[in-house]
């Protein structure tokens, strides 16, 4: 329990549960577990984002996804398909990049495939992960260190013989890849052809598949995957996003209500499927 005499400038929050803690700490006493510390340490060298905030996993549900991925990847669990449903702007795409970062830097001979809704989004994944690696101890192993010659669609770490490939949904998408980790960004916006004919064919037997999205319109593919028997479902509720001010949700609710688009607000900011 925080004593109210402590000045706010000396307070921070637990990265796992959001509870107020003294500045300089990472987790509260309850959340300060070995596995949470290990997950945090994966990203200890990552730089700040465009808003000046250090890139770190935040929230129990994000830690749960990382734990499920690690358990499946290390052969400790047979639950190899995971889907995260969350509000827009919660950081789900960053979470997928974090999984790709772990895979390429800690699993030699691995191949990560990131499936995206468009070419600009696919390139953004590579650009961001490359920036992270360039700020870490792994920068010495990255091929094509110079931006002018660096690939816009893939990253290779020569020492580990590991690779990340990011590709958009497209009829031209090659399906010959065999990924140890398949990441699907915004599966709620993918066409059935892109997912079933291309991306879902890329995971190797025993590979891990992680999808993350906000529901959008009918969300046909996402809803089918969400209801699949072999999938672990994780739903991140708005009140669990302690890093997003409540005023943001309240303001958006009013804006969408005035426009008569309450159902779209429920999809985008409450992560509800269309009824």
Describe this structure in words.
It is a single chain. By secondary structure, the protein is α/β, with parallel strands linked by helices. The protein has two domains: about 1-30, no CATH class; about 45-270, Rossmann fold (3-Layer(aba) Sandwich). Helices cover about 35% and strands about 20% of the residues. It has helices spanning about 35-40, 60-75, 90-105, 120-135, 190-200, 220-225, 245-260, 260-270; strands spanning about 10-15, 20, 80-85, 110-115, 155, 160-170, 180-185, 205-215, 230-235. Strands 5-6-4-7-8-3-9 form a seven-stranded mixed beta sheet, with helices on both faces. The longest helix is centred in the middle third of the chain and has 16 residues, at about 120-135. The termini are far apart. Mean pLDDT is about 90; it is low at about 1-10.
Give a short summary of the structure:
The chain is of the alpha/beta class and 275 residues long.
Low-confidence stretches: 1-8
**Number of strand elements:** 9
Query: How large a portion of the residues is in β-strands, by DSSP E?
Result: 15-25%
CATH architecture of the largest domain: 3-Layer(aba) Sandwich
The CATH superfamily label of the largest domain reads P-loop containing nucleotide triphosphate hydrolases
| Global outline | globular
SSE sequence, one letter per element:
EEHHEHEHEEEHEHEHH
Structural class: alpha/beta
CATH class of the largest domain: Alpha Beta
- Tell me about the biggest sheet? 7 strands, mixed
User: Which fold does the CATH topology of the largest domain refer to?
Assistant: Rossmann fold
Beginning-to-end CA distance, first to last residue = 41 Å
């Amino acid at each position: 329990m925080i004593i109210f005499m402590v000045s706010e400038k000396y307070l921070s929050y637990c990265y796992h549960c959001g509870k107020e803690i003294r500045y300089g700490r990472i987790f509260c006493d309850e959340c300060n577990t070995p596995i949470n510390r290990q997950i945090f340490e994966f990203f200890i060298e990552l730089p700040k984002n465009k808003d000046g905030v250090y890139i770190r996993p935040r929230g129990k549900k994000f830690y749960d996804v990382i734990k499920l991925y690690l358990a499946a990847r290390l052969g400790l669990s047979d639950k190899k398909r995971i889907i995260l449903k969350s509000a827009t702007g919660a950081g789900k795409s960053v979470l997928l990049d974090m999984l790709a970062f772990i895979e390429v830097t800690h699993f030699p001979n691995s191949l990560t495939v990131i499936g995206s809704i468009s070419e600009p989004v696919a390139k953004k994944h590579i650009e961001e992960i490359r920036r992270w690696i360039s700020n870490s101890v792994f920068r010495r192993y990255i091929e094509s260190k110079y931006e002018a010659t660096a690939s816009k669609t893939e990253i290779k770490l020569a020492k580990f013989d590991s690779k990340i490939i990011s590709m958009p949904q497209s009829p031209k998408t090659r399906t010959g890849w065999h990924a140890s980790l398949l990441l699907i960004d915004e599966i709620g916006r993918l066409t059935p052809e892109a997912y079933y004919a291309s991306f879902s064919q890329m995971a190797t037997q025993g590979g891990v598949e992680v999808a993350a999205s906000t529901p959008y319109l009918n969300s046909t593919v996402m809803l089918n995957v969400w209801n699949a028997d072999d999938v672990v479902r994780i739903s991140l509720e708005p009140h669990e996003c302690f890093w997003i001010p409540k005023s943001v949700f309240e303001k958006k609710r009013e804006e969408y209500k005035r426009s008569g688009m309450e159902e779209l607000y429920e999809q985008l900011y409450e992560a509800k499927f269309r009824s």
